[in-house]
Amino acid sequence: AVNPSPSCPTRSFSQQLSHLTSSQQFSSITTSVEKLISHLSSSQQRQLKPILLKHANVFDTSKPTIVNVGIQHRIPVKPHHHPTQSRAYRKAPKEREIESLQVQEMLSNHIVRPSSSPWSSPVVIVKKKDGKPRFCVDYRKLNAITERDVYPLPRIDDIIDRMVGAQFFTTLDLKAGYWQVPVSESDKKKTAFITTDGLFEFNVLPFGLSNAPATFQRLINNVLGALRWDIALVYLDDIIVYSTTFEHHVQHIDLVIGALNKANIKLNIEKCSMAKKELDYLGFRITPQGIKPTTFNVKKTIDFPTPTTAKQAYSFIQMAQFYRRFIPKFSNIAAPLNVFKNKNAKFVWTEECQLAYDTLKNKLSQYPLLAYHDGRSPLKLSIDASGYGIGGVLHKITEEGDRPILFLSRTMTTAEQKYSNVERECLALVWCITKLRPYLYGQHFTLLTDHHPLCWLNKQTSKNGRLDRWALQLQDYEFSIKHVAGKHNCVADCLSRYPMSPPD
To answer: Is residue 198 a contact partner of residue 114, using CB atoms and an 8 Å limit?
Structure first.
């Protein structure tokens, strides 16, 4: 256990001054910390503030720094490949000015250095979402001959499921995270980029390299170690700390920020969220009760102007599909817009398209909430199959009633559409259970189906080899089958008749 309150806070603060650039910098950090926790009660602030100031150095971004965990980015190239070379792209005067200023800033901060490398990649100036220019290096040629690092990124759904039971959340934002990771000295020459002013190479990890995410995930996993999946989770540079009580949360923040500070990793205090009851993470609004769409993304969808081209219509449906797990009947609603997924589709905005567009906006504006799977509550799976689709809805049974955990569906292949009714229903069962294995394996659940013959699935064998093979696949699961009339299985029924995604 970690004592959340140092025995002598004043001494702890003064000790930190020796590690900071100046007392003025420490004073600035103190002000930022007070602002960061201003939403908490006075008692809670008294517990958390000393912990944050104990690790004040982690918030000192006055100078660029390099992590000290012994991990460097390497760029192994495939055998028998020579250095890739490109000429500098021609740019407008304004773009050349942006390019030159960015290079000078990176030189002064030791992010890059002059190079005499045989490698070279061109620079492009692109617009960020807010319209501001961004300096980027086009590493496509280098990436094409780079051996892939397959170090895994965590699954977002696995991360979200770990939030169950948590009452307090903190997100930590790394200050220019990639630029805190050193590049191996022998590989710096491969990062070289060419401009109208000369050739330069990176001392630290640049954006755009194919193996950069793998290196960064490996590094941050190494830093957090056993804290991951217990009190903190990380997806690249997005870190979240979660706890069941405030007292535990203070201890957990101490451990996580302490580990980052020890590794010399710097945080952008202005973009951190500390000890919140709700916050946004990886595109979702995380709450103690479950997850829902973020206000930002919902507003972006609602404010999306009525499409006037097929490309705009496709962009809208792609944006809405990110949250399709929250919306029953999604594919039914969105069906008129699916025609615009075809690159050659002609743009004809019908009344049906307008209705789909308006309905999706309305559904998202209601901020639907999906429950966490806690591993204890009884589960109920509703499944159904139509002539061309299969679908399912997983609920957990609570005292307040059934709460959806997720919706899923897919279309059937041409061969599957020729199955008999009982085969299609069994296909829906096997597919849904297989997809939901992380939730269902090792836990008894109730299967609801409007197809009565499935009720005999576990009681007798058939003369159908396909059904018998599927029945064997289900032997790892413990479930009871309950027949419900189709009208009482309307959500799964609709999902199957209007499936949301093609088969894997």
So the answer is: yes
